[in-house]
Amino acid sequence: MAGTIEIRVLGRIYWILTVIVVVAAVSLAVDFESKRLLLPIALVPLLIFCSRFERLVFDGCVIARHGIFAGIESFVLRKSRRLNIDSIEMVACEAIRSHRGFRRVKYLYRLIVAGASMQFYITFVAGRNSLNQDLVMSLLSSLDENRLDPRSSELKTYLKAKPDNSLLEKARKIELNESTAEFCNKLPVLVLRQLANNLKMEGLMQPAFNCFLFAYKREPRNPHLLYEMARFLFSLGAIDRTPLLRRSKACLRRAAHLAKDDTKLLERIGETYFEHKEYKLAARCFSKAIALESNLFRANIGLARLALEEGKLAHVAHFYNVAGQSSDGSQHSLALREAGYYERLCSDDDYFEAELSRITTLQNLQWARNWSSLLLFVFWMAALLIARFSNDWGMLAWFVVFSTSLVWLCSFLLSYRYSRRHP
Q1: How far apart are CA 209 and CA 391, in angstroms?
Q2: What is the pLDDT of residue 206?
Q3: Which phi and psi (to 5°) does residue 107 adopt?
Q4: Buried-exposed string 28-43: b where 16+ CB fall within 10 A, e elsewhere
Q5: What's the distance, Cα to Cα, between the start and end of the chain in Å?
Q6: Residue 306 neighbours by CB distance under 10 Å
Q7: Under DSSP, is residue 71 helix (H, G, I), strand (E, B) or coil?
């Protein structure tokens, strides 16, 4: 997509400022001087006003964050908020489901773009035309498959290869009957697959299921179709339908068997097995792909992640080194950086102990942040109720709110420091 695309975003700095406002309000509320509460309350519309200037911009070559707090964050953390497309190392995608029955599931997608020690987050709702979706389509279209995880690759296909609107409208009304079967038999299997995947992304599960079924009846030995069906059935089976999960596993096994020498498909099947925590089957797919073509980047990265699950750091370093030799640009830098990191963990005991201490501290900070946010909410509600009946107990509740707010804020800020590896 030509031209510059600009969308509004909400940076993490706003959460910190919100907590600061809460802390200020609570500390003033303890003194019960209502006039002084006007100052922190006045900061709320100021934050809302500033948020209107926070933007994420993509011009086809560079993705950048602009805005008042983007500048502050860049100054404080000493990091540029601009990322060249050639410096993007990996793109991952998370999907949040809103269950509305078998026929309808609403998906919220969250894209994570990582590279050059920075991350950008983009969210959008599938099936709803928006600038966020246009930016995602433009960005994913500019990247090769090696940088995309399986769900990001699905999104790229969905956004680029959209069927005709009239055909898609008919597909939304597909049912299992003779007239529908006659209509579907006239369509190529590839078009049926595109329709099914588009309907899945929109959350129309029943029509998507019907499209996949008609396509499967015509080409039951198509490995790409079976792979797509496996991911669809797993997504559907996650809504507490155990038989669908079994069908998903069967489709994935059959796809791996029929893939034969299709190394790219074997990589994706292996990554799907890894997502499902089927580590032995994932290793089998990655190894089969590498036996056919040794310089596959994602297959070697997959084997490195499997070795890390088993605690074999030397194997992790080896597979990252192989991945680095089979890639170039930002992926080459990523693989060699990870290989060097794990090689040093194996050879330097002091560094290993320092990293172990850092990771433990980071986990403790995450634990403190989770519990402090829970206690903050509980005691905030309690303070609003208790303060009406007892000033002493109310002040105690407000003091706990104040303390938990500070704990959350400190743990959040310290997480930045401990999230960085030792040099």
Answers
A1: 60
A2: 82
A3: -110, 135
A4: bbbeeeeeeeeebeee
A5: 40
A6: 22
A7: helix
Residues in the chain: 423
Instruction: Please state the rounded mean pLDDT for residues 42-71.
Output: 77
* Domain map (residue ranges) of the chain: 5-158, 159-347, 350-418
Instruction: Report which DSSP code applies to 230.
Output: H
Which one, of 325, 339, 260, lies nearest residue 297 by Cα? 325
CATH of domain 159-347: 1.25.40.10
Tokens 């074997």 belong to: 266
Q: Is the pLDDT at 1 greater than 50, yes or no?
A: no
pLDDT surpasses 80 at 266? yes
CA torsion sign, 295 to 297 to 300 to 302? Answer: negative
Burial class (CB in 10 A: 0-12, 13-18, 19+), 353: exposed
Listing DSSP states for 188-228 in one string gives -HHHHHHHHHHHHHHT-HHHHHHHHHHHHHH-TT-HHHHHH
Q: Is 125 a residue whose pLDDT tops 70?
A: yes
Q: Are 354 and 386 in contact (CB under 8 A)?
A: no
Between these two residues, 23 and 131, which has the higher pLDDT value?
A: 131
Contact (Cβ atoms closer than 8 angstroms) between residue 97 and residue 106: yes
CA distance 120 to 158: 21
Contact 262, 296 (CB under 8 A): no
DSSP state at residue 412? H
State the residue for tokens 């401990």: 418
Q: In angstroms, how far is CA 354 from the centroid of its own chain?
A: 29
Q: CB neighbours of 29 closer than 8 A, spacing ≥ 6?
A: 37, 398
Question: What's the count of helices (H) and strands (E) in the chain, helices before strands?
Answer: 18, 7
* Averaged pLDDT of the chain: 81
Residue of higher predicted confidence among 209 and 394: 209
Q: Give the pLDDT score at 28.
A: 55
CA-CA distances (angstroms) from residue 80 to 56, 117, 118, 415? 13, 10, 8, 19
For the four alpha carbons of 16, 17, 20 and 21, in that order, the dihedral sign comes to negative
